[in-house]
Amino acid sequence: xxxxxxxxxxxxxxxxxxxxxxxxxxxxxxxxxxxxxxxxxxxxxxxxxxxxxxxxxxxxxxxxxxxxxxxxxxxxxxxxxxxxxxxxxxxxxxxxxxxxxxxxxxxxxxxxxxxxxxxxxxxxxxxxxxxxxxxxxxxxxxxxxxxxxxxxxxxxxxxxxxxxxxxxxxxxxxxxxxxxxxxxxxxxxxxxxxxxxxxxxxxxxxxxxxxxxxxxxxxxxxxxxxxxxxxxxxxxxxxxxxxxxxxxxxxxxxxxxxx
Length: 259
Fold this sequence. Notes:
- Helix content is 10%, strand content 52%.
- By secondary structure, it is mainly beta.
- The chain has a 14-stranded antiparallel beta sheet.
- The N and C termini lie far apart (43 Å).
């Protein structure tokens, strides 16, 4: 089920540009998105970040819920949950959860990350596929984007048009590199107003859904919040769009263009 749009949405939920502060996010951050196909609203997604404790360590807990609404919910009900428990200092995950409910399809998977035992690699323990040894410093699908926010974008990384950044992740019990290619700066119209944004095209796999490897576009606010503002998926049957709908507890208010 890797090809469904909500999973792709998860890959995109992150960040851009800022300088002079330690982190572009904080505990309590919450953002919601409306997902629509043309004029039809088909779903919602909510992403929250909280401070918690995991095995005696203080962690940040990212929780992403994506679900269908209206007619789409009646035709094909989706309730997808992704979770990551990661270190506030290193950004590396301790635990990830993938809980998928799509129509009659069900998948629940917990993966534990051991970054300490081996100096040259990371040990993963999956409740579905057992033990894996993979690259040092690997992320899960959510923690990688918080890491990207803090260690590239919050430090005002000097992106050049066409440049791609790769962060290695473990997703659906497989090695899964996330590649984001910078496309430039644009003004994006949202329901709340225009926002200056940085545009990225995540590299997509040509096949069942996509005609080219640039059929997903993401626009991130060019302010201290670095929030994904709009995401567009151009697939064989049309275009899906996820657009920011509400937000709470950001580093600073979103900056809207008044003209």
